[in-house]
Every structure is written in structure tokens, then in C-alpha cells.
Amino acid sequence: MSSKLRQPPRTLVTLLLLALGSAAGTPQAPPALPTTATPQPPSLEQYCVTPQNASSNVCEALSNGLCTKELTTEGCHQALQAPIQQFCGNPSAANTAVCLAYKKSECPDGLSILLCDKKLSQGFFGGLFEQIAKNAQLRDAAGLLIIGVLTLLVGMASQKIRVLDARLGDPMRLRPRTSGYRTRGVNVILVGLGGAGKTSIVRALSGCGEANPAAATVPRLKVKLYSVVQEIDVIDGESSLLHDLNRIYIEDYEGQQFGNRLHDGTVRKREELIPSTVIVLVVDLFYPSKPSNQKLPSRDSWEESRVRENLKQYPEGVLNSIKLMTPKCSRVCLFINKADLVQPYDDHVEAAIMKRFQPLREDIDNEFQGCETTTIIGSAASGWGVSGVDPTSKRAVTLLEFISGALCLIDFGKAK
After folding, report:
1. Do 374 and 397 meet the contact criterion of CB atoms below 8 Å apart?
2. Which stretches of 239-394 are assigned E, i.e. beta strand?
């Protein structure tokens, strides 16, 4: 008796799933995502166009013909690591600097293109320093050589300093006299109102920046002390022989404070060695500027009230007191300052200035009979009349020339 296999009954759920599958058809795969192409690195030609890249190693290699413009930066770096003999085997590279050096055996086989190029750019000293850095014995030898050279230079400098000290040092301090020249000196006394231009005269004579017209004179003694040194050579044929060493000592006094000058030990000691033989009375045509470093404007005439104030500084008896304090005085100069501020300046203006100070000039001549007296009109700020001559003025004598005429030999026997 035959029997049939019985199929399991289909449930309602199964039938619904089959129906839905038939209606939807064959399932499709999801759409593929779009692909992005990998960016290519720029060529050397593109990379080196940017200014900040121009000084890079690869761009320098491009300009030296060590890398072609089609290479990338990475490709150029790799190419520079190639042995020099491999690179120079290419005929197109024969005229590059590294291949010329390779032909001269300056770059040996096996050395990379980069190291050969670096060696050429460093030069002799760069290669030497590189060898010293790698070799301890060379480093020690180089250190000893540097110490020896520095010791030699210090010794030479010390010797020059000793020579200069003996020659230019203040003779009032004990030191041996250097042969080959004579030392002459003169002691100058500057007297005048504050702001009249005494310190500016010192600055014009010496170029001393410490001679600051804006700084007040020392309150205790109302004096500043300066020293100007002039070294003069006399040319004899093809040789140069030092002849004179001139020292100009300057005492800067405010107003009538010069009476205290001999109370200072330094001044008194120098007076014994170099007597005060030159007196410069400084007057001016204008009040000092405020602030003092500001330049005064030009005017067509002087300030009469300032001129009167200057003249009042020398009543009867004051010039005689100055004379008594400087018994060996041989020269007296009246320096009229700030004349450059009178514009226009001509012979008529100069004559008018001379006439305005004529009473004081006559008093000086009368009080200092037997001394050489002069009047100089000028400008301490510009140097006119101090160390230079105004081409528009007929007066050719400068204060420096007038002072230098009183130079005398210094007796070193008294410098103890």
C-alpha cells in the first residue's frame, strides 16, 4: 500500500510574506558612493613659484640643476640622496657644480649629491669647522690656538694702552715722561652768566659730549674742570715725528664764583704746575632757551635786557679781583656769544655789537694793561669763532688760536 508524504500546511503569515516578495520583485543593491581622486603633489616648478618656498633645499637644487622641474619635492629629496657618480653619469648633468667638483675629485665616489653640494656651499672654512667638530684632537688644538691668539692681542693692547697713558695721561699724576715730544699746557678760566655759553665753548673746543650745556654747574664750587689734548705731528721727509702734545685745561665758573677756585685741591695743584694765563669772559646776546636743548629762533636784533644783565656782572672792582686771582695772566678775551641768531648778519650788525659792548671792552683794556686783549664775536653752538671762522666775517682769529698762543712747556719736575 503506497503512501504520500504530506506537506506542512501553509499558515496565513507565510502566504502574506510570499505575496509581498512577489510584488516587490528582485531586491536591488544600494547605490555605490562616489569615489574621490587622490590629489597629486605639486611639481617642483609649481612648488618653487611660492616665494616662501624659494629658499628651500629642493628649490635651490632646482636652480642648481640637481633636480628637474617635473619632480615632486619628495622625488627631489630622494634624488639628492643618490651617489654622486650615478648622477654625474648623466650627460645632461655634466656641467653642474657638483659634477665639476666630482671630476676634480673634490667629491669622492659614494658621496650623495646633497652632501657634495653642501660641501661646496660651505667652502674651505665650513669644511674645516665640520672636521674640527668631528675630531676631538682638532678641537683641542683649535682651542689652544684661539687662546694663544687672544693672549697675544691682549698683550699688544696692554702695551698700546701703557704708551698712550704715558703720552696722553695727565702729567699731574705721577708717570714717566715719554721721549720724542714736548708737552705744553695752558690753563684757561671761563667766566660768565649761567646759560651764556661757557660749557658750549668747551664742547666746541673738545667735542666732549659730557660737556652738557643743559646741566647746571657744580653747586658747591660753581666750577667744572675740563682738559683738551691736542697731539701735533711734524712731518720730516717720509717719516713722521711727534713734536708737540698740547694740553688745554679749562675751568668753567658761573658768575663771580671764581673767587673760590683756590679752595679746591685739584685746581690749586694744577695752578702750581700750569699757571692760569688765559681768561675768557663770556657774554651773550640772548637769554638761554627753555628747555635748554631747544634751539633759539633767529631775530633781527639782540635782547637788550640780556645784554644789560651781562654788563652788570662786571661792576667796578670785579675785573680787578679776577686779575688778582690770576697774577700770571697774559691774555684776556671777551667772547660775545649767540651772534648767529641775529639775522641777517653783516658788517653793520658786527659793528653795532662791538659798540654795545664798548664800555666793557675799555674796562678790560684798562684793567689788564700789559696783557694781550681781544674781542671775538661768534657762536659756541655752531663753533663759529671758537674753532672755526664764519666766511662772512672779516675777523679770522678764533678762540682756539688765541688760547694756543699762551701754551708753555710743562715742568714735569713740579708734577709730584
Report:
1. yes
2. 239-254, 276-284, 331-337, 372-377
Report the chain's C-alpha Rg in angstroms: 46
Domain locations in the chain as residue ranges: 44-134, 135-168, 182-414
C-alpha cell at position 273: 704746575
Question: 72 forms bridges with which residues in the sheet?
Answer: 43
Which strand (E) or helix (H) includes residue 226?
strand 223-236
Amino acid at 79: A
Residues 50-77 pLDDT 10s: 888 888 888 888 888 888 888 888 888 8
Taking only the tens place, the pLDDT of each residue in 370-412 is: 999 999 999 998 888 998 765 555 566 899 999 988 988 877 6
Question: What three-state secondary structure class fits 374?
Answer: strand
Q: Could you say which of 3.40.50.2000, 3.90.1170.40, 3.40.50.970, 3.40.50.300 is the CATH number of the domain covering 182-414?
A: 3.40.50.300
Task: Report how far residue 120's alpha carbon sits from residue 60's, in angstroms, rounded to the nearest whole number.
Answer: 13
Q: Which residue has the cell 679749562?
A: 250
Q: Full-prediction pTM beyond 0.85?
A: no
* DSSP state at residue 193: -
Could you tell me which of 199, 191, 186 has the C-alpha nearest to residue 380?
199
Half-sphere exposure in the Cβ direction for 157 (13 Å, CA)? 6
**Could you tell me the pLDDT band of residue 226, with boundaries at 50, 70 and 90?**
confident
* Residue 50 φ then ψ, to 5°: -70, 125
